[in-house]
Amino acid sequence: MRVGMILERDYPPDDRPTKEALSLIEAGFEVFLLCFTVTDRPREETYNNIKINRFKLSNVIQKKLSAAYLVIPIYRWLWKYQIDSFVKCNKIDIIHLHDLPMTDIVIDVARKYGCKVVCDQHEFWSNWIGNTYHYNTVIGKIVKYFSNWKKYEFDNLHRADLVITVSENLRQLYINDMKIPPEKIITVPNTPSYEVFNEDNIDKNIVEKYSSQFMIFYAGAIDILRGIDLIVESMAKLENKIPNMKLVLAGRFARGCNILEQAESLGIKNLVEYLGWLEVDKIPSYISASKVCVFTPPPEMSNEINNTITTKIYQYASMKTPIIVSEAKMMKEFIVGNGLGLSIDEHSPDLLVEKLLYLYNNYRDVKSSVEENAQNLIDKGEIYWDQTIRPLVHRYQNLLTTSV
In angstroms, rounded to a whole number, what is the distance separating the alpha carbons of residues 246 and 240? Predict the structure, then answer.
């Protein structure tokens, strides 16, 4: 059976599509992946047995027109041609689309060639996109006004054969708010692979580099939705209270977010280290080197942030490192309820200061407790991809022979 994944960015790297593709290949499927490139990467390439098909796309077109997908048809036309050719040439049986945009195209192409459609919702898209930086500029607000993503999401997910979401809470939102039939939607949490996130995959040189520092670590996208500004503001208040403190950031900066400028304006740029984008197999070493890992998004920004557990939380937990989160509902319940760390009760730098000081002053006891509690979750099979991917593989094995 041939699976055709559609990804609206260059590939690799992208952790979730890779994990899903490798799991499907292990289960006997053949996986092809269509993406674009803004560089001169090969049009065709095989990566970890994933057969990649790329097409060249202008960086300007991608950045300017992707957000206007529902308003300006040029970007849609470009993708429709590529998807049609990709599905036809590779004799695809199941089209697996990552994220919401282009669902309408994929469904139309699938009906043309007799394929099944799987919609993999990495985010609660219609709720997430309205809070992004580019949708809240002057031009962005105009585009947002004419972009009814809520209706688009409702209409097209109902036409899909299978919908994947990243948490049970989000699954219930889709069932209750968008009336997606329960049997049509499954949960595949974005847990890490044991092959990567384990204690044998640690670079001792990285751990040694930070051994004398109170290292605070964050990995992932760096934008206005992630609350990293709160961490920097808190560090400015802790500069003289926690010696050898260092915030280490790994990821890409999004438009409208420059944490290094904020740190410089607060006079603590020397306390912030930016690593850039890390390959996923490097992240365990930095988590192990840290004293605490953080994720403090403002929960009032979206329903999604209150109803998901982001992959970085599972990554931190898999390496048994204490975690501090914001009051975002589901992540707070997961961290506090399982004894994996601490949370703040409102989005306040003073409260984050309080939690960081508590952790610093009680580190040995907190670390010991977190290690024990994280191991309990690992033993239950609730942390690693190798266990949580099973529902998707099962549904794929039955997708072409049963009605979803």
Answer: 12
